[in-house]
Amino acid sequence: xxxxxxxxxxxxxxxxxxxxxxxxxxxxxxxxxxxxxxxxxxxxxxxxxxxxxxxxxxxxxxxxxxxxxxxxxxxxxxxxxxxxxxxxxxxxxxxxxxxxxxxxxxxxxxxxxxxxxxxxxxxxxxxxxxxxxxxxxxxxxxxxxxxxxxxxxxxxxxxxxxxxxxxxxxxxxxxxxxxxxxxxxxxxxxxxxxxxxxxxxxxxxxxxxxxxxxxxxxxxxxxxxxxxxxxxxxxxxxxxxxxxxxxxxxxxxxxxxxxxxxxxxxxxxxxxxxxxxxxxxxxxxxxxxxxxxxxxxxxxxxxx
Length: 304
Description:
By secondary structure, the chain is α+β, with helices and mostly antiparallel strands.
C-alpha cells in the first residue's frame, strides 16, 4: 500500500498477495517422536485420526510417540489428510523448537472445525508417514485454516516435512465478487500479550502477532477503484474518508518505527514498517492480483 500525503509521497509497501491470517494452535498436550526423513525430495503422508489411550473396539493399536512409545488406539476413519493441506511451512513452537505450520483448504478448515467441536476433551493422533508423532488433547472448537505440528524434529526434518506436505506451491487465494473486508492493525513479529498470533504474508508465512484493535476498516474508505502500481501491476486504489485520514495520521505519528498488518478477508496481505507520519488519505493496495480480482476487491471494499 502506498500512502500519499499532503507534503509529498510517503511509502508503505503492502505488496505480497493476501494469505490466511488466523493461525490456530489447536491442541493442548503432546508427546513426540523423531526419525522422519530429511530428504527434501520425499513426499510425506499426513493424517489426523481420533485416538484413545484406552482400548476401543474396532480401532487399531499402534505405538505412540517417543521416547516411551506408549500404545494408543486410533480410529479407522481418517479425519484430515494431505488433500486437506494447501501449504505447509517451517515454523517454531512457543519454546523455540522447530515445528511445521499448516494452511488448510477451506474444506479442510471445515473438517477441522467439525472434528474439534464434536470431540472436545478427546485425543487426536497426528500421523506422519504412518507413524504417530503427536497425541494432543482437543481443548476447544477450532475455526480458521491454520494449525501447527509439534514433534521432536530437526531443522532439516521440518523443512522436508513442509515441502512434502505442500500440495500446491503456486496457490494463492481468489477474490470472488462480493463484500471484501479490509482492516489495518498494529503488528509485531515478537509476542505481545493479548495480541493474536496469525500467519504472515506469503511466501514465508512468518507468524506474527496482531493487535485486537482495528485501526482502519471498510467504514474508513470513501472510494476504492482498480489501479496499477508504478511497475504496471494490477492494484487497488483507496481514498480514505476525512475521519479515516485523521486516524491514519494519528496512528503513524504515535507508532513510528512499528509495523502494521494490512488484512484482506482475514488474511494478512503485508506487514510494512511505519517510517513517517502519514497525512492525507490516498492509498494503494498492492498484491499478486489479476485485473478481475482488483475490480472485485475495489467493489467489495465499498460494500459496508
